[in-house]
Amino acid sequence: MANEAVIIELGPNGGKPQRFTVANGTAITKGCLLQLSGDYTASASSGSGDVFAGIAAADKEASDGATEIAAYTEGIFDITNSAGAEITLGNIVTISGANFIRSAVAGDLLTGAVVGKALEAASTSEVIRVDIGAKG
After folding, report:
1. Inter-residue contact 129 to 67 (CB < 8 Å)
2. Neighbour tally for 123: CB within 10 Å
3. What pLDDT does 18 receive?
């Protein structure tokens, strides 16, 4: 993968990690934006508007026998803006493909696709700080 999120600050809850089920045959890189792909099951983000689960706290090797992964659900991370649109300071952001974000639209708020709040403005493909878990 590429463009993984980078930890800036995890805060007093240590990033509030949560464990999710993952497929044994799946490889996930630390810092990967994870989507909910089933009942308390996570996989690597892939599409625009995926339902955000968290950010992978560790690497997971394919076919290593592990079927769980911890994901950070709070904290401040550097995350890459997608190509094609700017993000305004303070915008709520959502997943926009594999390890990319974009400004959220109304439907994203209803489906739980919110990643967090942009703490910086972003031009196309720029890396910015995002407060994950912040909803407003």
Report:
1. no
2. 10
3. 97
Q: Look-up: residue for tokens 């240590």?
A: 14
> Residue 40 corresponds to which tokens in the numbers above?
């308390």
Instruction: Give the alpha-carbon dihedral of 51, 74, 18, 27, to 10 degrees.
Output: 60
Give residues with Cβ within 8 angstroms of 39, minimum separation 6: none
Task: Using the structure block, give the residue that is written with the tokens 């810092």.
Answer: 31
- In sequence order, the β-bridge partners of residue 51 are none
- pTM score of the predicted model: 0.94
Residue with tokens 């089920």: 21
3-state secondary structure 65-125: CCCEEEEECCEEEEEEECCCCCECCCCEEEEECCCEEEECCHHHHHHCCEEEEECCCECCC
Residue-level pLDDT at 130: 98
Which residue's structure tokens are 């995926």? 50
Q: What is the pLDDT of residues 53-81, one digit of tens each?
A: 999 999 999 999 999 999 999 999 999 99
**Checking DSSP bridges between strand 100-103 and strand 75-81, what pairing results, if any?**
parallel
